[in-house]
Amino acid sequence: MNAERQWLTPREAATLLNIGVSTIRSYIRQGRLEARRIRGSRLLRIAREDLERLLQPLAPREPAQQAEDTR
C-alpha cells in the first residue's frame, strides 16, 4: 500500500488503525467517519485525512489522577 495515497478502501483503513473492517463500516454508518461512494457502484473510499481526523490525541493526565489510578 502506498503511504502517500489519498483514498483508502475500508479494508486499508482498518489495517492502518489495526481494527476490523466492520468497525470502519460502523463508524461510517454512525457518522464518525466520512466516506465517499464511487459513482455507479457500491465501492467506498475514505480520504486519508478523514481517517487521521478520527484519531484524537489524549490530553496529559493530572498527577493526582495518576496517583489514584495506581491504587
In which range does the helix fraction lie?
40-55%
| Mean pLDDT across all amino acids | 87
**How many helices?**
4
> What is the makeup of the main sheet?
3 strands, antiparallel
What is the count of structural domains? 1
- Envelope shape: elongated
| Computed structural class | alpha+beta
Give the strand tally. Answer: 3
The helix/strand order is EHHEEHH
Q: What fraction strand?
A: 5-15%
Distance between the termini: 44 Å
Task: List low-confidence stretches.
Answer: none
Radius of gyration, taken over Cα atoms and rounded to an integer in Å: 17 Å
Strand order of the largest sheet: 1-3-2
Characterization of this structure:
The protein has 71 residues and is of the alpha+beta class. Strand 2 and strand 3 (44-47) form a beta hairpin. It has a three-stranded antiparallel β-sheet with strand order 1-3-2. It has one domain. The protein has helices at 10-17, 21-30, 48-54, 63-69; strands at 7-8, 36-37, 44-47. The N and C termini lie far apart (44 Å).
Keywords:
71 residues; alpha+beta; three-stranded antiparallel β-sheet; 4 helices; 3 strands; elongated
SSE topology:
Blueprint: E1 7-8, H1 10-17, H2 21-30, E2 36-37, E3 44-47, H3 48-54, H4 63-69
Antiparallel strand pairs: 1-3, 2-3
